[in-house]
């Protein structure tokens, strides 16, 4: 029975030292998270702020800092950026949100334990207002990017935001037993009981029970909860609606029902990366203080609460990312209706519009207008459908009708424009294999970041001529200054996007499921003596996700070690049309496995890889595929590594925050939704087991490294441990590393560093 010895010996200690020095070169690189652009009084210039993150390995957290720049635009079309000499660190800051005019900036500090949430209103040179909100009013403000909703009113006196509902009271005990209500809880001889168990929102939302909507007046400092929202709704993504004739202030927000919209489901299911949770847009009055919310209005025999939230999107099962056009005439939003209706946790988006009432008073009879429908099957390199990870707060060009957004386009991310009246979609960025991510708009100009697997992110600036021809300028910035060592290593690499024909293209498949999928191949420009570098097959999770042609630091590290990379966006990935995406449901462990093996055969047949020098690596569903491959094709891989892999659906279904995922993947969309229950039958468990890697475990002989997060709620640590222990029983070489405080992503800086260091050392060991 083979097992890796505990601790380090002299040989692998040298390997760890060497690789950690190289990994540090990549892991310390900064990334740009957000940017804002503000018009200057001088029309020929503007100001920009960039929010930048850098891993802090010693502190095991991320340093966040702001870097400012002055943008000068010349009459000849040239643009220059004058950068501040140093960035400003935002220590202890949860989020920042500039006001629409750019004259004020909201800084939020969520305090740990029982400390109050701090709101700071900054002016051009100092803090103009500081407001402390105790935990008795609300818990932490949501700054996660999904429930998060922080919106300034047009006059910049009110801020609407989403925060955690105050924690309900809990029983207090002391040496004599229960302490009655009203007694002091600060007595050192007493303690708080646990109280009733409450469902939370799963992975990445530990401690988050119910987000609610609040408004703070930054002049008076008063905070009130927005009334009229049913307790069964969880709110997020709030925006201010245009003021109506009576100067009523409405808020539009996204509402998710606690039961996930189904009578069968009596709990909150995990929501991170889960676009299949039903949601709707609601409008509610923000100007009515809670003390006045009991006023009723009588119309004949019907009584109605004036403050009740109004469902604006009853005709569709999903609505999120609401944005008002600059003139206030249109409310535009994305929908994941396809995901909700089929059970796929992510699917092709559609874009919709509501013509806002001219009197500014919303109602339930507003008509939903389709702007961009779901694309079922994309032909050749045509538009594959909307796959938008987010929207800008202000995505509009000066015509007030054209939105600019980033979207996945097969294996790349591109910038597109959408005319919300005509529905016309245009690709703004040129036909390039790189990925482009929009940061902000500067009038009708675009500030964005571009990168590729072999090129770190660079800030760029796009402007259009009168004929709408776009020009792209490279911007020299402090953020883009990488070490000579990194530049030298990356300059020796190249990449390409390969189209992989579907080898099981039977007549039963849809047109979309028969079209080629893609793989990204990263390799050295120079082959040594005609030999191929060892190859790592890299697989994404989801399965409804993808790996883009953007720069990924850890992948670049593996390339720098001398490996070629084959990154497979198998059928089921985002960015390829809805039919291809849906084809994987009910076919996991077979179709996706065939796709990966076909992609591997493709590069071997091209002479780009040696079949005797192949490793495989993936996380989550990519770990599911990794462990399937070493079981179904046991002679094809020299080594494997899996991060929080799904190894046994029958075990996962009873422990995960997304049990519905197990059903939908095992049975298929509508059938899996119908079968879903919290009490799986023996037949259900049998099907899930047979779809799982553990059913092929007896054939595995590939040395495998497992990296597991002990706090993972998505794929609990028991899944990987069960499989790893069973491999050990069979005499397979196994190494397991468990990160006690990490969740599904294993993305705390030290854990991420240690993960990929061990992957590099593990693969090097088995390729020697």
Overview of the molecule:
The protein has 768 residues and is an alpha+beta fold. Helices cover 18% and strands 32% of the residues. The strands form ten sheets. It has an eight-stranded mixed sheet with strand order 34-35-37-36-38-39-40-41, sandwiched between helices. Strands 1, 2, 3, 4 and 5 form a five-stranded antiparallel sheet that branches. The longest helix has 19 residues. It is globular and about 75 Å long. The chain starts with 9 loop residues before the first helix and ends with a helix.
Helix/strand/pairing category: alpha+beta
Helix content: 10-25%
Largest sheet: 8 strands, mixed
Beginning-to-end CA distance, first to last residue:
21 Å
Backbone shape = globular
Keywords:
five-stranded antiparallel β-sheet, 18% helix, eight-stranded mixed β-sheet, 41 strands, 768 residues, disordered N terminus, alpha+beta, globular
Summed up, what is this model?
With 768 residues, this protein is of the alpha+beta class.
Topology:
Elements: H1 10-27, E1 31-39, E2 45-56, E3 61-73, E4 79-83, E5 88-89, E6 95-98, E7 105-109, E8 117-122, E9 127-133, E10 150-152, E11 158-164, E12 172-174, E13 177-179, E14 190-192, E15 211-217, E16 223-225, E17 233-240, E18 250-257, E19 280-285, E20 296-299, E21 302-305, E22 310-311, E23 320-324, E24 330-335, H2 337-342, E25 350-355, E26 368-372, E27 402-409, E28 412-419, E29 425-427, E30 435-442, E31 445-452, E32 455-464, E33 470-474, H3 484-491, E34 493-500, H4 511-514, E35 517-524, E36 535-539, H5 553-560, E37 564-569, H6 578-582, H7 591-605, E38 614-619, H8 621-632, E39 639-643, H9 649-652, H10 659-667, H11 669-675, H12 682-690, E40 704-709, H13 717-729, E41 734-739, H14 749-767
